[in-house]
Amino acid sequence: MLCVLLAAGEGKRMAPLTATRPKVMLPVANRPMIEHLICAVRDAGIDTFILVVGYREKKIRDYFGNGEKWGVSIRYTVQRSQAGTGDALRAAKGLVKGQFLLMNGDMIVTADDIRRICASPAPAVGVFESKTPEQYGVITETDGKVTGIYEKSQNPPGNMINAGIYLFDDDIFAEADRLVPSPRGEYELTDALVPAISRGNLHAVPLLSWCDIGAPWNLLEANENALADLTSDIRGDVEEGVILKGAVVLAEGSVLRSGTYIEGPCVIGSGCTIGPHVYIRGHTVIGNDCHIGHASELKNSVIFPRTKIPHFTYIGDSVVGSDCNFGAGTKVANLRHDKKHVKVGGVSTGRKKFGAVIGDNVLFGINCSVNVGASVGRDVRVGPHTVVSGTIADESVIGRN
């Protein structure tokens, strides 16, 4: 059996983080999310992959190559138009014979769940019990057979959702070839499932562990899950006077300077300088070549590579892109006064604590204040003493420089 991974989309809901990289290359515990999937599928016993790529595909090809580093074989096929998941499936036509696994590339799932769906008769779809079923395609089933799929209904008939993991025979390509554009102008994979549902032979396989990464704030949950069983691994330098509590991973070439206090779980990449006197709280992930300066505090945040966070800065529950530079004294708020769920661009994060989404190469002047729920586009320039709120477009200049 082989696995087809759908990795062609831009991921517009992940903006501004996808302005310079495909969605599937966004980091979870300092590794691209799709790398976690490839490793889980490999650990489930499948070592042959076809990656359907498109948007900024070179990033994926350059990183994974032929898959040898991971002990797998990877081939690529291109979805030119990104015209929906059904169109992405058709891009793999002619490369697949017999039974195969098909997965969306923007989620985290365990090897045990992959084995579970592979043990089912085909065709089969993985389903997961969700607290927000209105955001997904909802599955109804009777005796383990799918009876209906309802896409993003405001009044869903249940809470069991389509997890985007399928086991197919190659006859699914004939159904994909018959697809017509949906009302939103895309070829929907779920429409290709209608004949199997009508025949009563589409199997629903419950998954025990699944994390969707459809919006920037989902990266926080994904990292929290990835770090749940973290084991300490200190390969960098730790100066006298550093205190480490819980599991901490410190990559080679990084240094923790005196007075720094870290509450794990926490992952710090290579080439980083942390401190002196930095406080890092649980579930924080710091990418390669970052600098966190004196008297700064980070909490439950994801910091992409080469970002500089100098002295007297606070960042809580946020996602920060690559190559950013925070002016000294900048603060990112992460809690509304009314304690309600934070919204970003009018969309609820489902989290009472969430700070900001900050794109790549954003420069802040000193003493800036970033309001809860802000979304700051790539290449934005923020003047000193500026209050940042709402959605800031790419390449904007705000405040007095």
From TrEMBL:
Top EC group: transferase
Pfam families from the UniProt entry: GMPPB_C, NTP_transferase
Metabolic or biological pathway: Nucleotide-sugar biosynthesis; UDP-N-acetyl-alpha-D-glucosamine biosynthesis; UDP-N-acetyl-alpha-D-glucosamine from N-acetyl-alpha-D-glucosamine 1-phosphate: step 1/1; Nucleotide-sugar biosynthesis; UDP-N-acetyl-alpha-D-glucosamine biosynthesis; N-acetyl-alpha-D-glucosamine 1-phosphate from alpha-D-glucosamine 6-phosphate (route II): step 2/2
Gene3D superfamilies cross-referenced by the UniProt entry: Hexapeptide repeat proteins, Spore Coat Polysaccharide Biosynthesis Protein SpsA, Chain A
Reactions catalysed: N-acetyl-alpha-D-glucosamine 1-phosphate + UTP + H(+) = UDP-N-acetyl-alpha-D-glucosamine + diphosphate; alpha-D-glucosamine 1-phosphate + acetyl-CoA = N-acetyl-alpha-D-glucosamine 1-phosphate + CoA + H(+)
Molecular function, one GO term: UDP-N-acetylglucosamine diphosphorylase activity
Record keywords, A-Z: Acyltransferase, Multifunctional enzyme, Nucleotidyltransferase, Transferase
Stretches assigned to the Nucleotidyl transferase domain: 4-226
Residue ranges constituting the Mannose-1-phosphate guanyltransferase C-terminal domain according to the UniProt record: 262-334
EC number of this enzyme: 2.3.1.157, 2.7.7.23
Protein family per UniProt: In the C-terminal section; belongs to the transferase hexapeptide repeat family. In the N-terminal section; belongs to the N-acetylglucosamine-1-phosphate uridyltransferase family.
Protein name as catalogued: Bifunctional protein GlmU
Native source species: Methanogenium organophilum
Taxonomic placement: Archaea, Methanobacteriati, Methanobacteriota, Stenosarchaea group, Methanomicrobia
